[in-house]
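Recall the central idea of this unit: under ordinary conditions, the amino acid sequence of a chain determines the structure it adopts. In this exercise we apply that idea directly, starting from the sequence alone.
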Amino acid sequence: MDPTSLTFKSFWITPTPLIDPQYMNRREWRAAELPAVNGHSDARSLAKMYGALGNGGEIDGYRVLSPEQIDVARTEQSYGQDEILLMPMRFGLGYHLDIPEFQISPTGSLFGHAGMGGSFGYADPEVGIGIGYVMNRMLMPPDMIDPRWKPMVDAIYGSL
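Accordingly, the structure predicted from this sequence is:
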């Protein structure tokens, strides 16, 4: 909550903080096209899109990305302490990559993106799956790691 920090400056939108669910549920926010912060989806659609990415990039006859584009998107571009989120992060081109510090998949090959309050969508081409998770209750743990993720992902991989 230090107003001089990069974290505060990044998440506080006058007069309301970005992390306030009431702000994000406003019509104006939901109608805005802000690719980095306000994607909206249900879990089934999110899992379907990431399922395509986990299986060569095509689903129901539609190509989302080519296999070559998926490989490029999964290529590490940065890895280290994030000055905004204050935790280690690893990125490909537009996607989070699994990192040893918080690895949630047994393969270490998940790529996708987490969302505000605990939602996420990830693909794992090594085992051909896509995962989509959205929730009714947003959590903002101090370490930004949602405690629901790991047991859920363990159950998914355990069922394969």
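The helical segments are 6-11, 21-24, 27-31, 43-53, 67-73, 149-158.
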